[in-house]
Design goal:
nine-stranded mixed sheet; Hydroxymethylpyrimidine/phosphomethylpyrimidine kinase; ATP binding; binds ligand LCLJCK34; hydroxymethylpyrimidine kinase activity; 267 residues; EC 2.7.4.7; alpha/beta; binds adenosine-5'-diphosphate
Amino acid sequence: MTIKKAMTIAGSDSGGGAGIQADLKTFQELGVFGTSSITAVTAQNTLGVHGVYPMSVDAVEKQIDAVASDIGLDALKTGMLFSTEIIEAVAAKIREHGFKNVIVDPVMIAKGGAPLLQEEAMEALKTKLLPLALVVTPNIPEAEAISGMSIQSVEDKKEAAKAIASLGVKHVLIKGGHDEGEITYDLLYDGESFHTFSGKRINTKDTHGTGCTFSAAMTAAIAKGASVRTAAETAKQFIQAAIEDGIHIGSGHGPTNHWAYRQRGGC
Ligand SMILES: Nc1ncnc2c1ncn2[C@@H]1O[C@H](COP(=O)(O)OP(=O)(O)O)[C@@H](O)[C@H]1O
Ligand SMILES: Cc1ncc(COP(=O)(O)OP(=O)(O)O)c(N)n1
């Protein structure tokens, strides 16, 4: 059996719903061996972020080198990168190791409002990291911040996707969780055409880590050889099941259920 491998370069969420923890659980559920480089430790629970402790650039680099030099990877995702220095170091390592299937989840702000990316790091994200990415998966506020455009309609979403693609990233997937309406629409732009992935909007507060889980599911599917479009379909099904069967723990926003997709027969 060939083992498929995926790496996450992201922050740790002590509450287990987002970040590295969500990514590794998702990789595991989709049958992919997960490895990690931790960029920051957050003290976090369902009520919010109580502390952010960035790792040194050297620590982030050494974790990537350790995995690359021995284990290798079929796909890689980034999540919380926090600072310009860490983004520049990660971009340099992607180039040095020649990593190809790079999925960038441009994490900026946690649900409770805590900043997970310093404002001044936006430029490095746009100019250093996005040109190396196969896919970027912003939510609507992140797509607005990257494109500099306000998104109020489907047409706005399409224009923002084109503006983000012009930064050099091959596919742009704008997630629709922050929209309104009974159906969620995630929009994929591949540089030529648009594809929409839809699902029933679940009325729940247990949505902590949806973005991390979605991009990790895409990463796992791509590691297994799926096209970006098929990976987006898998990720949409994975997150739909995970939100529908959400886990009611803590007194704030509970995590999604990473077991749900496989329990329903997906793999
Ligand atoms: N209440 C919900 N019901 C169903 N799907 C949702 C819900 N909230 C988010 N999603 C889906 O979860 C994924 C993550 O979306 P989003 O919430 O926009 O990301 P983020 O967590 O980065 O803010 C997308 O596929 C989105 O459509
Ligand atoms: C360590 C860490 N990384 C990322 C996030 C943001 O995760 P996301 O999936 O966007 O979920 P919410 O913050 O919206 O719940 C995080 N909180 N912590």
